[in-house]
Specification:
alpha/beta; Rossmann fold; 7-stranded mixed beta sheet; 4-stranded parallel beta sheet; 16% strand; binds pyridoxal-5'-phosphate
Amino acid sequence: MSKQYKYILDESKLPKAWYNINADMPVAPAPVLHPQTLEPVTPDFLGVLFPMNLIMQEISTERYIEIPEPVREVYKLWRPTPMFRAHRLEKALDTPAHIYYKYEGVSPVGSHKPNTAVAQAFYNKEAGTKALTTETGAGQWGSALAMACNFFGIDLEVYMVKVSYNQKPYRRIIIENYGAEVYASPTDRTQYGRSVLAADPNSPGSLGIAISEAVEVAATSGGAKKYSLGSVLNHVLMHQSVIGLEALEQMAMADEYPDIIIGCAGGGSNFAGFAYPFLHQNFTNGTKTRVIAVEPASCPTLTRGTYAFDFGDTASMAPVVKMHTLGHTFVPPGIHAGGLRYHGMAPSISTLVDHGDIEARSVQQLATFEAAVQFSRSEGIVPAPESAHAIRAAIDEALACKESGEKKVIAFNLSGHGHFDMMAYQAYHRGELHDHDYPAEAIAEAMTHLPQVN
Ligand SMILES: *Cc1c(COP(=O)(O)O)cnc(C)c1O
């Protein structure tokens, strides 16, 4: 029998509804708290930042929420995305395991992020929003939202972490190409940015600072601008569920079912988007798939952070949520997987890790790039450094199968391609990258700044 490499769904198989894990959570969610009062937030506090239709999605417990037709029409530009059987990688590893990967790098901006960007732009347009603000690290989220805002006729201001703005110009130019404005954060456009620059004129910026700036601009716009976040929030994770819903169908086409599901986790959106539809099967159909979230050892939120209430941003302006956190004062080391450097984690993922439904694992930078290079040499695709964390774990599981002789089915999410991350690959090939464990003292210090919630 000839081997099948790709599992391709017809456009008619594009999911008609998103899957919302809130309907199936084994433990009740912790409340979201107001950053000043530390009391549960009211919808009108969130209403300063987000349109009411997205706030309703954020707190919804409906299992399936219909994907609006205009969103599906944009999704069809690249969805359904392919699922591959990694025959060549299996051979290179000499493993009896079957390895599958879902590839989100076929989107116009090269990652999974437009799955929520398009939905958020649509709902903001419906709610009458004229302009959005957001932050971006290396530019993946900024480019996704810029594309989406352009499609739906919404203005966009992007606060881009300064070190990336200067060192990684390509995604910034993509953002500008879609017609959005990009600023190197910290900027002098916000009170918070000015305070950071006053303390350190050479501040390289951070995701937490950029979030604070984007939030401040929206919150002080008198309702003219709303804010958009690319990960962490419930509705963002839900929009990403199209990945896993398609993957369930594609595994059925392959006549297999995964024993192990793997994704990399920064704020958690691509991981959850891929994994939650499979967790739904664990919760309701008795499947026993192991679900593994992989993060960098240098930003070990799930594996070494504390499960506690913390601010979503550095300036303590964003809502306080219960999550695994390295502390909102966390200063990320300069690793190359820019998308995995957030101090917190999506609350639902934190809850499910705490409850034992999801395993968390950290991997080192060098082993991650080694896996990325091995993957590109067998499968051809040069993965995003973020996605390479999932590849590392998938390879490790496949090697464990080689040891044990087990023929497990392993499926991972390849969240994006690495075509704009070539400087990171160059640094790896030149031997300039190093492993890095985030220091225990730094974590302990950051924990002293957590909000005191009763
Ligand atoms: C942003 C990004 C991530 C990390 O974000 P999550 O919300 O954790 O998915 C992972 N992979 C790629 C390619 C990204 O662009």
